[in-house]
What we know:
With 165 residues, the protein is an alpha+beta fold.
Amino acid sequence: MAKNFQAKDRRDIKHLDRGNPYFEYRKYPEPTECKNCGLVFVDGRWAVKTISKGIANKEICPACRIIKDKIPFGICVLEGNFLKDEKNKSEIINIIKNIEKNVREKRPLQRIMEIKEEDGKLEITTTYDHLARRIGESIYKAYKGELVLKYQEGERFARVYWKRD
Length: 165
Ligand SMILES: [Zn+2]
């Protein structure tokens, strides 16, 4: 199944830990504004904020950088005959979009990168491992089927498979 993945594996990337541009808790001068999505780094984290005065320091936030580099931290693959029904499929896509919307309110760096449809499967790539997990778990909770999580603590990369025939 793994050979079907088009997204590059996070583990192929050597520069984890030190010097990792994705590292969420890196210190930026405060405030710093993401020149791509407008999030602001204040109080040690990226958040949706309106700062009345102009922000001189501009950077690209970790989420935008991950999206730009097209290297996800989470992959969720959904498959099976259940998805061949267009109604089921669009319902599932709506659920996925709502999950992202809700998560982003509190954790704006957790984003869906792409929802790709191929050979009757849906492949969802995410900027954070937790979001891929959450999507898989929510679909499983709503529709049953089979769920496999491949996730190692400390690795910050999750592969999630869900199937229902
Ligand atoms: Zn950004």
